[in-house]
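thread: overnight batch results

M.L. [08:02]
morning all. the overnight job finished for the chain we discussed friday. pasting input first so we're all looking at the same thing
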Amino acid sequence: MYAILKLMEFVSRSRELEQPSHWWARDRSFALVWGRRRVGKTLLLEEFARDKPVIFHTFEGRPLADELAVLSRGATLALGVDFGRDLINRPFSSWDDLLDEICRASSSRPLLLILDEFPEALKVTPNLTN
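M.L. [08:03]
and the structure it wrote out:
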């Protein structure tokens, strides 16, 4: 099950923050936030995630291994979660590895994973959505 949160305008921060806040309070499953470019989606997500255990990663079109290394460092630094290994010296090796580890880490407490600029990830891993 997943939620789709569509942001047409980013005018009223409190109103816009209600959607992800309600989602987080209900089920914390997969959610997709989309909208036109340059309307404040990233700022909204940063504000929403401020008081939550979060891995916030912005894709920049780096090669897959580099994206996973940056994600690994972010996970280690942001959360202090025990991923069962040193992610700096042994970063996530694949998307499956990343998601398996995050699911394991989130079994003991809620964990928010935000993947910003996702179309950039698809450029280096076209089959990511399969």
